[in-house]
Amino acid sequence: xxxxxxxxxxxxxxxxxxxxxxxxxxxxxxxxxxxxxxxxxxxxxxxxxxxxxxxxxxxxxxxxxxxxxxxxxxxxxxxxxxxxxxxxxxxxxxxxxxxxxxxxxxxxxxxxxxxxxxxxxxxxxxxxxxxxxxxxxxxxxxxxxxxxxxxxxxxxxxxxxxxxxxxxxxxxxxxxxxxxxxxxxxxxxxxxxxxxxxxxxxxxxxxxxxxxxxxxxxxxxxxxxxxxxxxxxxxxxxxxxxxxxxxxxxxxxxxxxxxxxxxxxxxxxxxxxxxxxxxxxxxxxxxxxxxxxxxxxxxxxxxxxxxxxxxxxxxxx
Length: 317
Known about the structure:
It is a single chain. With 317 residues, the protein is mainly alpha-helical. The protein has 14 helices and five strands. Strand 1 and strand 2 form a beta hairpin. This is Recombinase. GO terms for molecular function: DNA binding.
């Protein structure tokens, strides 16, 4: 008989985390050839082997998966040993790795994508399935940008949890998110705007798809049938990349779901938002996290322009 507590234990770990842990175990056992339960020495050798090729954050994710396996099985956790910690610290010193970040989707580029959506939607050749997809994607871009949502947050929005106040905005209840460690949920507000309005895009999409319940952003097949399940977070990345490419935005492959989040953070920084106000709006708990998302202009070049100084290198202005 299944233990009734098992499903609650299962629910305590998010699906993406479980997949990451499984991948870590598979990599350690099948790719590297390690044995479980592991020793501190074998973990250290594993880290040393992949130190030249894997980023330090990837190695830490692998360790988290291995630690979870040992804890779940009741074995001592070898990843917490001083030996392993010292090896990991040495790897960080000898193999510094620049953190890769998604390219921010700026307001001008958001306008370009939305204008492309509107242009195609106005075409007489736009089929019903195509129209549904475009109207959904337009709402996804605008809601995602103006609330700086992650892809997983966008895919967790249900129609039942959205309240509309005409000409004022939306209220969206998110049952959980990455920073909501206690799974209490939070209610966020999406503003109504004169241009690039997320509320109008939301209303157009709900009306077009005749949505009454379920996920706000479901999958759509080639016949225009809506899925019962939401888009997968990875599919949100595909939507953003493809939309940017079709709209003619250069380097479209450099965009991802975090591009909406970084784009909003950079826009709000340019509008001189207080960092605390930005953190509260987006839901960040740590200042360092917030600063990683802000793509500010080079302060030296900004001062040079403000003071009328010529650029140091031709073509910088």
